[in-house]
Amino acid sequence: MKETIYQTICPGCGIGCGLYIRKNADGKLSIDHMKSSPVNLGKLCRFGMKLPHYYAKENNAVNLVNGSSAVAETAIKAAVEILKEADSSSIALLSVGNTTNEEQMAFTKLAATLETIVQTGVSSECLNVPMASLVEIENAKRIVLFIDPYVQYPLIVRRLLAAKKNGASIVAVGTQPLNLADETLDLKPENHDELKLDSESLIIADIHPNSDIMLAKSLLALAQKTYAKIQFMRPFMNSFGTGLSGDQESKKVGLAELLEDIELGNIRTLVVLDSDPIELMPDNEAAVESLKKLNNLIVISSRSSPITEFANVVIASEPVYSKAGTFLNTEGKLLENSGAGKAGVDALSLLNAGIGGKAFTYDEMNYLVLKAIEAQKEKRSVVTECSVSVDGVSSPEIPEGMYELKYLYNPFMWFDQQDDNDFVLLNRNTVRKLGLKKGGCVNLKSNRGELKMRFRVEALPNGLVLTAKKLPVARGTSTIVSMEGC
Amino acid sequence: MIEVGDKVIGYSTDPGVRNKGASGGLVTAILAAALEKGLVEEVVVLKHINEYEAIPIITSDVEDVLASAGSMHTVPVNLAKYAVGKNVAMPGKPCDIRGVIEQAKRNEVNIDNTYLIGLNCGGTMYPVQTQEMLINMYDIDPEDVKGENIEKGNLIFRTKSGEEKGISIDELEEAGYGRRVSCRYCDVKIPVNADLACGNWGVIGELSGNATFCEVMNEKGVRLLENAIDAGYIEIEPASEKAIAIREKVNNVMLSMGEKWSEKIFTEIPDGERTQYYMEQFADCINCGACKEVCPVCTCGEDSKCTMYHNLEDNYRMSMFHMVRLMHLSDSCIGCGQCTDVCPVDIPLTTIFRRFADKSQKKYNYKAGMTLERPPFLEVMPR
Ligand SMILES: Cc1cc2nc3c(=O)[nH]c(=O)nc-3n(C[C@H](O)[C@H](O)[C@H](O)COP(=O)(O)OP(=O)(O)OC[C@H]3O[C@@H](n4cnc5c(N)ncnc54)[C@H](O)[C@@H]3O)c2cc1C
Ligand code: SF4
Ligand code: SF4
Ligand code: SF4
Ligand code: SF4
């Protein structure tokens, strides 16, 4: 048998780097670079390079009913039964943007039949944030970064370096010094005026299920006040595609709020499309506890992940690289897969028909997607209620002798993927104070228990510990911990 | 009777292939014959996606071979790794062939059953940048292009309506377009390291544009050519003295142009500033590992000397990974440009690796990837 080559985009973040996935006769996957992709010119970050691991066969979802394997038809039937019996006022649908526009559109059809909307994990207060233009980064005069591009959105590093060559000054507002930044400022929101922004400045930030909506709002307000441009990066391959459904006016809640609603019993049936709250929430254990309160959990997914393990029904679709479909990247560029897999849309069509709605085809969904994109172009410039000035972005009080353990979100973290980042970042003062030895470890303690970790030294502010991996001692994106040598 | 050292001019006997081929479809016809007559099980060719993009495929389908005819100057891939562990025939630019030979030195490729049809190479360009160049320098819509060619130092584009426009490569490179940097100083233009060395230099008169100049470099080359003649796929005639002289002359001009570029790029770094130079160059590295993955002369696999030191926990400003690689590739880097092409933070890796390798390769009068006779010098250096 010949090898099969799929043209696709990387699912690691909203940049949507183009690449080829090669599948040989034995089913072994490898990547190949697609140098004609205008998004990334064939370049990929370490997540993209590790896609053969991410897409490994053992990570593909399989159809399950109550934990036992089933054929697709049985799984879909079981899901139909659940949805028919569920009280429609307590059903929620969630898709953060890890799949095609067409599946996303099909999911909104299902939501409409269920008289609800698709939640995206981000509050509608900040849903309609402006997209990024990667080329524009290169031409900006002054760039203020509220992200760490090296770790979080690696393919914008080259754009920033190009901007620098073109004479831009770059300021990083954050904690970790960035080689490409002229200065790094650990600024509180009330001091953002010190950034001296004007109409030739560009703010780059990001928005995701765990970001501080207040901070996002304050940045939008800052941009409006100073006439600076602002661009928001997004962590999922099709984050922007989730905005195509046309239900922007409806109230969408953040992921944490959605889980709270589950805790409170307001949501009893959850249907997720390629979105795993256990992976997405900063605290895996807490997310599991919340999900246990559900009566019914239906997972439609291409990947097996923690949530597929205790779902009532799992409906498996093919791996994203082999799906037919389109994606909207962080720039609003429409990117297309070469694959032909339509199992996701077909399953959603059967589900929809099963509960009394209309059946539909992939082509119909694709038509609606293209129409929605046209419509969106016309009202692209509108920025929503986010543009209200807000005070009081939270920053925690750190008791004497304690440390703040903070998450450094990156593509590996969103999918709980292995990377060689089994360490925390500390500064030299902390290493000295705790008497840590080169090659040794540090013991982190919180009220969730303790954990020994290796460490790396970085020029961070005193009192801060960073992790690019989820740690069981963490309770959220920021946790107060104590530390000692080990 | 074909003999090693023969220089011939030939073309495909199939008018369709001849027409579609870059210069007479000789290479396509030889590949198709090798496959159909069982000389090899598979061939490596490019599958065209569009005018600017193609992807290497390993195929046993002769239709794929026929579809691949034509030179793609905007496909700066390296084909060497696709030959690993296979019995294939493949076309290749000098850097593709050099990669295969380095792989063969390390027993990753069995050279006895790998057939290498070399293509002369003036250089490759980046697809996205080329499209930008078409708009800015040629005033041609990239979608309108139906073919390109390099002739007499000019890069010529043909549109669907049959118009042609050429601009000198020098002018394009002045404006920041044109060939990849590594191609500008590349020092092998005729692939004398292949079994057959094919190109359009030296094809003159009526045959110009629709025949290929082909030099038979070794016994495998003889086999390839005889196989295609016996199958009736190609016709050849001996190259004239004039043709041979022209080919030689153009090659020399190209090589001396390359030397000039080399002098321009590899300016000496003063003593005491080298560590700083290397540290600064690598400071933005995001440890993706792509530079190793694509390197056509790297044969170590996932667990290798450099990856043993490839850990994000490392506190060194310049990863040990790069230090090991600089050393380890100093006897095998062929300057193919692949590492620079894939670096997500645009580190000019090829220039850095060549800077390091050039000195030692020159010292031992060693050119990587040219012949199996010379083993990697780091392995055989007297202690
Ligand atoms: C990038 C490039 C630059 C060249 N520059 C010169 C030059 O300066 N002077 C000169 O005399 N000849 C040059 N050639 C060779 C020339 O263009 C013809 O390939 C050669 O004369 C053989 O012609 P043909 O009709 O027999 O080949 P064809 O029958 O057209 O077969 C061409 C084969 O080359 C393969 N191929 C096409 N593009 C590439 C690529 N980018 N990398 C690897 N394989 C590829 C195809 O898969 C196909 O198998 C160049 C070729 C390439 C690919
Ligand atoms: S994770 Fe993002 S930056 Fe990295 S390769 Fe994937 S899409 Fe590109
Ligand atoms: S490195 Fe040399 S052989 Fe390779 S594409 Fe460039 S000019 Fe051709
Ligand atoms: S180090 Fe770079 S230039 Fe040298 S052979 Fe490897 S990929 Fe090519
Ligand atoms: S390709 Fe570039 S960023 Fe990636 S490891 Fe190599 S030097 Fe570093």
TrEMBL record, chain A:
4Fe-4S Mo/W bis-MGD-type domain: residues covered: 3-59
| Signal peptide range in chain numbering | none
Its recorded name reads: 4Fe-4S Mo/W bis-MGD-type domain-containing protein
Superkingdom classification of source: Archaea
Task: Read off the InterPro entries from this record.
Answer: Mopterin_OxRdtase (IPR006656), Mopterin_OxRdtase_4Fe-4S_dom (IPR006963), Prok_molybdopt-oxidoreductase (IPR050123)
Q: Which GO terms describe its biological process?
A: respiratory electron transport chain
Q: Which UniProt keywords apply?
A: 4Fe-4S, Iron, Iron-sulfur, Metal-binding
Give the classification, highest ranks.
Answer: Archaea, Methanobacteriati, Methanobacteriota, Stenosarchaea group, Methanomicrobia
GO MF annotation, one: metal ion binding
Q: Does the keyword RNA-binding apply?
A: no
Q: Does the keyword Cytoplasm apply?
A: no
One Gene Ontology term, aspect cellular component? membrane
TrEMBL record, chain B:
Report which superkingdom the organism of origin falls in: Archaea
Catalytic activity, EC: 1.17.98.3
Gene3D superfamilies, sorted: Alpha-helical ferredoxin
Q: Tell me where in this chain the 4Fe-4S ferredoxin-type domain is found.
A: 275-305, 324-354
Sorted alphabetically, which keywords does the UniProt record give?
A: Iron, Iron-sulfur, Metal-binding, Oxidoreductase, Zinc
Top EC class for this record: oxidoreductase
Cited Pfam families = Fer4_8, FrhB_FdhB_C, FrhB_FdhB_N
Cofactors: Zn(2+); FAD
Q: Quickly give the catalysed reaction.
A: oxidized coenzyme F420-(gamma-L-Glu)(n) + formate + 2 H(+) = reduced coenzyme F420-(gamma-L-Glu)(n) + CO2
- What molecular function does GO assign, one term? metal ion binding
Q: What is this protein called?
A: formate dehydrogenase (coenzyme F420)
Organism (species): Methanolobus sediminis
